[in-house]
Design a protein that fits this description.
The protein is an alpha/beta fold. It folds into two domains: 135 residues, Aspartate Aminotransferase, domain 1 (Alpha-Beta Complex); 223 residues, Aspartate Aminotransferase, domain 2, CATH 3.40.640.10. It is built from 13 helices and 13 strands. Strands 2-8-7-6-5-3-4 form a seven-stranded mixed β-sheet, sandwiched between helices. Strands 9-10-13-12 form a four-stranded antiparallel β-sheet, with helices on one face. Strand 12 and strand 13 form a beta hairpin. Helix 3 runs antiparallel to helix 10 and helix 4 packs parallel to helix 10. The N and C termini lie far apart (55 Å).
Length: 367
């Protein structure tokens, strides 16, 4: 017997999550200087981190010998101050991926099922399969969620339905009114998990109202992260919002100290840095327009995005990705999401976007 055979079959069948290619690895493989490499693969904030967060971190470096506050008291208060929620509604996570895993661990068994869309975040099937539950993938509509089809896929054994708005990796967005009607129509035995990792990039007219829905929908779980717009991806801090009874159950399966002290210190400071978020939104909106105009000049189809990235159809995506990589430009292949002709590119600063577009034109033989 191989040691591999000791694991349950549902664990052996999991395809591990593959993150964006790191800068250091690319530099080693291609003999490039790290400073010359442009990474537009992981939807990180090109402006870096909130200055307030960096300042707060400097002041906390002498506190590393102590365990973090396991309850996350200060961070929960900071979240509650910005959103119409109570600390009892909040579950803290080591990034929002951790929160997604917590909801799966708390509410799924091997006899249950969970529903999610084609072309949706790969962590949904990963956390479902890790429990041994059955994942039900529903065909997408125009690369986005088909809410009617998702509702129709719900079975008596379904416990979770995952919906991302905006969606990753396609960037599609659904009106919140439609999301609210969808949640209202779900059976009581199904939790709606709304993933809002890219919500800070939405314009004011599209900002999420979901925290205000918690009183109406006890079966609603909202996940958010500080990895994207707040620029804290390296610290891994996110949170979930839910009915207090749901949050309490998720906290039962949460690891002690799952969010480290520096992450919570930085998050508390970043949540109050409205100027940084406003500038991040401005740069992102401008960059989306720049990339879309560049794709149009190159005659490429792309999926209009509400996030901080765009998925563009380039044909032989594997070849184009490799060509870009050799110029020191890292983007994200999305063949694993059922999109073999697309690449996903993170919105950068104006000079970064221009460098990518020029390299893309050369890769396509149009430069």
């Amino acid at each position: 017997m191989s040691p591999r055979d000791l694991a349950p079959a549902h664990v052996r069948e999991i395809a591990p999550y593959v993150p964006g290619k790191p800068v250091a690895e690319t530099a080693r493989e291609l003999g490039l200087a790290e400073a010359d490499i442009l990474k537009l693969a992981s939807n990180e904030n090109p402006l870096g981190s909130s200055p307030r967060a960096i300042e707060a971190l400097r002041g906390a470096l002498g506190e590393l010998a102590w365990y973090p506050d396991g309850s996350g008291h200060d961070l929960k208060l900071a979240i509650a101050a910005r959103l119409p929620v109570d600390p009892a509604n909040i579950v803290l996570g080591n990034g929002s991926n951790d929160v997604l895993e917590l909801v799966a661990r708390a509410f799924l068994t091997p006899g249950d099922s969970a529903v999610y869309s084609q072309h949706a975040f790969m962590v949904y099937p990963l956390v479902v399969k890790a429990i041994g539950a059955r994942g039900i993938e529903v065909p997408a509509r125009d690369y986005g969620h088909d809410l009617a089809a998702l509702a129709a896929a719900v079975r008596p054994d379904t416990r979770l339905v995952f919906v991302a708005n905006p969606n990753n990796p396609t960037g599609t967005f659904l009106p919140w009114e439609a999301i609210g009607e969808f949640v209202a129509g779900l059976p009581d035995h199904v939790l709606a998990v709304i993933d809002e990792a890219y919500g800070e990039y939405l314009p004011d007219a599209r900002r999420s109202p979901t925290p205000g829905w918690l009183g109406r929908f006890p079966n609603l779980v909202i996940t958010r992260t500080l990895s994207k717009a707040y620029g804290l991806a390296g610290l891994r801090v996110g949170f979930g919002l839910a009915h207090p009874e749901v949050a309490e159950l998720m906290n039962r399966v949460r690891q002690p100290f799952n969010v480290n002290h520096l992450a919570m210190v930085a998050a508390c400071a970043a949540l109050g840095d409205e100027a940084f978020i406003a500038e991040s939104r401005r740069v992102n909106a401008s960059g989306l327009g720049q990339l879309e105009a560049g794709f149009a000049r190159l005659g490429l189809d792309f999926i209009p995005s509400a996030g901080n990235f765009v998925s563009v159809r380039v044909g032989d995506a594997a070849r184009v990705y490799d060509s870009l990589l050799r110029e020191g430009v890292i983007v994200r292949p999305v063949a694993g999401y059922g999109m073999p002709e697309h690449l996903r590119v993170t919105v950068g600063t104006a000079p970064q976007n221009e460098r990518f577009l020029a390299a893309l034109a050369r890769a396509l033989g149009r430069g």
